Structure formats: structure tokens, C-alpha cells
């Protein structure tokens, strides 16, 4: 199915009436959008999945990416950018790609090269405005990526990163708290269980003991 046809079908999809999805957001037939997600106008999603309660703001593009639950992505973010083979005579796709080659298809020769690698974005991740994330990286649960950062390498869970290229600035919590959060995986709890523990989500700088009180050991 062509990308254009996929986007047309997504425009008329009944999913728009069940979710908070703009009529000016589009996804292709290879993408899976959760029933509790938000896509703003101008969002384009290709060959990707978006989990429960994740939000994608205006003019963001998502390619070849799995996005977890409760993740917030700001405006003008580019996720899953493709690459070029740097160790060939030319990096021009006219020599190796039919997919992105409008010029000389007869010159294309098959090579062992993956133009797009899957990007993984965890749960409860926050991505600031105008961030660029290259294809193939993994962003851990709870990570924060500052505005206009360029992410070229994997980001550990609960790390706060920024810059070009992005570097770790600090971590959101102490190591023992991060370990407990990764074991708890609260984002996988049923909604009924989360509702019983809403007070836990209001505690600043939560510690290990408080986490155990709400979520157990």
C-alpha cells in the first residue's frame, strides 16, 4: 500500500472518533496507535507504534519507532532519521535505493545496508521541542531529552540529557530509586490500580521507602 493511500485511509479512520487525534495527523498502515493516545496536527507516523497515554505534539515526524506508554513528545521533533552508507564511493541513494530514488532507478544495485533502523523510546519519557533522534538508538524509561538536542547514542533510564550531540547532565533520581521504578514498571499497571496510588504521583523527590509504601517491595 502506498504512503499516500495509507494517509488517506488514516484520515477517514474511525479511530479519530475514539481518540484525541487531529484530522491533520496521519499514520500509515504499518503503524499502531493506542486507543488512549494523542496526536496533534501535522504529526506523521510511519511504521511505528505508540503506547497508552503517550502524546505527540505538532509537526513531529516518527519513523520506524516503538514508543512506550505515558511518553510526551513536544513540537517539531524528528524521530528515526535514516542514514547513508559512508564507506561507499558515493552516499547518493541513486546508486543503492529504489525507495528514495526519483532520478535513476536503472542505476540502483543492491547492497547490504539498512537505511532505517528501529528506534526504541521507553515509557514515561519526555522529549523537548525540536529534538532530533537518529534511527537505531534506544531511549530508556523515564529519560528526559532537552530542547533542540541531537540524540545519536542510547540514553539510560531516567537520565536527563541535552546538547549537540546529547550528553548526560544528571539523573532524575538516586540509583536505588531508579532501580525500584524499573522493577515496579508502574506504567504497566491497570488503570484501576493507578487510580488507587494517585497520591504517589504528587510526591516530589520520592524515595525508596515511599515507593515501597505505595507499590510494595
Describe the structure.
By secondary structure, the protein is of the alpha/beta class. 17% of the residues lie in helices and 23% in strands. The protein is built from five helices and 19 strands. The strands form three sheets. Strands 1-4-7-10-13-16-18-19 form an eight-stranded mixed beta sheet. Strands 2-5-8-11-14-17 form a six-stranded parallel beta sheet. A hairpin with a 4-residue loop joins strand 18 (159-162) and strand 19 (167-171). Helix 3 packs parallel to helix 5 (208-215). The radius of gyration is 20 Å and the shape is elongated. It starts with a helix and ends with a helix.
Task: Offer a few descriptive terms.
alpha/beta; elongated; 19 strands; 8-stranded mixed beta sheet; 217 residues; 6-stranded parallel beta sheet
Number of helices: 5
- What are the low-pLDDT stretches, counting only 5+ consecutive residues below 50? none
The share of residues in helices is 10-25%
Largest sheet: 8 strands, mixed
Read across the widest sheet, the strand sequence of neighbours is: 1-4-7-10-13-16-18-19
**What Rg, in angstroms, do the CA atoms define?**
20 Å
Proportion in β-strands: 15-25%
Shape: elongated
H and E string:
HHEEEEEEEEEEEEEEEEEEEHHH
Can you count the beta strands? 19
SS content category: alpha/beta
State the end-to-end CA separation.
49 Å
Mean pLDDT across every amino acid position = 88
Amino acid at each position: 500500500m502506498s504512503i499516500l493511500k495509507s494517509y488517506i485511509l488514516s484520515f477517514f479512520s474511525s479511530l479519530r472518533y475514539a481518540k484525541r487525534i487531529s484530522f491533520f495527523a496521519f499514520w500509515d498502515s504499518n503503524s499502531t496507535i493506542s486507543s488512549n493516545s494523542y496526536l496533534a496536527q501535522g504529526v506523521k507516523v510511519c511504521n511505528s507504534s505508540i503506547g497508552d497515554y503517550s502524546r505527540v505534539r505538532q509537526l513531529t515526524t516518527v519513523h520506524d519507532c516503538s514508543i512506550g506508554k505515558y511518553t510526551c513528545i513536544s513540537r517539531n521533533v524528528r524521530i528515526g532519521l535514516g542514514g547513508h552508507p559512508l564507506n561507499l564511493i558515493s552516499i547518493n541513494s541513486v546508486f543503492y535505493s529504489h525507495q528514495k530514488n526519483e532520478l535513476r532507478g536503472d542505476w540502483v544495485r543492491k547492497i547490504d545496508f539498512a537505511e532505517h533502523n528501529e528506534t526504541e523510546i521507553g515509557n514515561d519519557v519526555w522529549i523537548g521541542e525540536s529534538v532530533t533522534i537518529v534511527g537505531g538508538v534506544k531511549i530508556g524509561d523515564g529519560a528526559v531529552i532537552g530542547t533542540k538536542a541531537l540524540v545519536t547514542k542510547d540514553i539510560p533510564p531516567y537520565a536527563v540529557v541535552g546538547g549537540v550531540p546529547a550528553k548526560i547532565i544528571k539523573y532524575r533520581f538516586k540509583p536505588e530509586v531508579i532501580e525500584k521504578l524499573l522493577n515496579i514498571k508502574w506504567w504497566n499497571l491497570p488503570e484501576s490500580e493507578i487510580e488507587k496510588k494517585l497520591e504517589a504521583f504528587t510526591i516530589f523527590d520520592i524515595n525508596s521507602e515511599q515507593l515501597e509504601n505505595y507499590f510494595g517491595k
